[in-house]
User: Fold these one by one.
Assistant:
Number 1:
Amino acid sequence: MAESQANINDWWGKILGGGLGAVAAWPYWLLGVAIGLLVGHAFDRRQAVVTQFRAQGSDPARFPDTVFQVMGYLAKVDGRVSESEIAAARQAIGQLGLDEAGAERVKQCFNEGKQRGFPLDSALRRARKICGRRTDRARIFLELLAQIALADGTIRAAEQRVLESACFHLGFKRKELNQVIAIISAQQSRSSSHWQPKRPPPVNDVTTAYQVLGVNRQSSNDDIKRAYRRLMSQHHPDKLAARGLSQDMVKLSEEKTVEIRAAYDRIREARGMR
């Protein structure tokens, strides 16, 4: 059915062009049809190229390729790619649940992003098309970039600019970027060798807790509750699993909910909220 529809679409320009040519050139309708067919054929070819480009640009299967290209660019933007950034990229392969062939492909994409002259803006525009209205997918894209930027323990100015550009293209605000960075930082601190599982998650200072929830000290208690509920809904493992995310990404989401809940509890404690 889809193939027959595509074949029909391939002829629409010729049919309309021939018909209009016949009417416009009457009584020399044969000449009009010939000219109309040529114009229609050119129109059909252009539409076919546009349709193919749009299909490739919005294909969700290209999500891993595109994110790893941008990750490669981000890792290289400060001059060199560190071992910790390479380790973060390997971790992302596992988080996306890629098989052996997929892992080899995204490694190549990572190397492409590292090359001089890599078109970052084009890649980010493609990322926006791939994510479409799926804000959960766009947020995962941004979170994977943040993991690379924070792999060395701090975000340098050049890396910050890349993250802000990604936010712009993906439709996020600066506040949401700070929120993602705070959550990823808390996760990395919790998973370090200096943290023991029996201790509470390291969202100890209220400033970090506010950043995790994307609010501030001037926010009302109701605003804080709404921000907490919205974040918990966005990262709800059952919702993400239903949307087809891999088990590794669902597990990562579960870890994020730990940081979000810990931040909320810390703010409640500081404010005396019920």
Number 2:
Amino acid sequence: MIMKGFIMRKALRALFAAFLLIGLVIASGSGPAQADTPDAQNWPRPRFISYNVCGAACAMYEGSKDAWRNKIVNAMDGWDADLVMLQEMCYGQWTLLRDSLEDRPAGNKYDSVWGATLPSTSGCAKWGDDTRYGLAIFAKGAPGTINNGTRSVNFLPEETPGEDRILLCARATVTGRTVRACNTHIDYSYKVIADPDPKVPPTIHNNPRAQIQKVADITRGFANGGDPVVLAGDFNQLPKDVDMAPLYAHGGGTGVFQEADENDKDYFTGADCPQSGDRCRSGEATAEPGCSPKASEPGKIDYIFLSYYWFTTVRGDSAACTPGMSDHHLLRGAAAWEH
């Protein structure tokens, strides 16, 4: 199982106070489950999915490429998704899904783009000879639904080198309108480097904070340029974490986004999330001990962000576990057009 992590808000405060690295590591097995799909008649459109598919580290679902593909396709069709963001995706997974969806004789067609974060990883060999690893975006429609001329890959800051962290974006037609679709996978690692002089505090290298800030800056630019923006991905941070503030347009944030699952009062906790409120930096867990054996408690680390000016009536839902599909829950979202 792939190892994932997120830093709890209280733990982060303790880290800076004590100059210690405190992390929560997540490894889980979960995925799309059609039985718990919300009542589609009561949810607005457009519809979105974000899902970390754990392509390299997780075992292939039911040991079959076709079984994996069919499970993903069923999740997309069951939700009638207009835009789908997938992370930790092997190149062979992408081509398998792409080829199945771009010209199928029945059902919705999907156009797609892909971006690499690793030139090769051994865990992708089970999907084919090309072992590249990265992110993908799928938009409902025939080829050309995604404008490949607008495709961009922005490399995010990495003070502690590892897998390339990127923001993959492209303009896409969604329910007849052009949006800027962006997908990312934020690092979870914080690294504390001790100084030789014991009197000098250690240096804390914060990959997530720097990466999220750059994602916020780039997507704010798209929004200010007039594009409705849909930003999704695995952020490896809890909603109230200080690192997430550059994204949210409320709750002490400085960003331009609302999040799909921010108004479900079942997940409002703490004095800053009163039941009397309409929204909160919160949401249903996308990783939890039952599906994520090394998660110490449930936590939301996957998101679907929608630019506040363009969207309203947001809704979100984390799918139930399907062991063997991934180490994350699939996240569904929906919204209505504001303008």
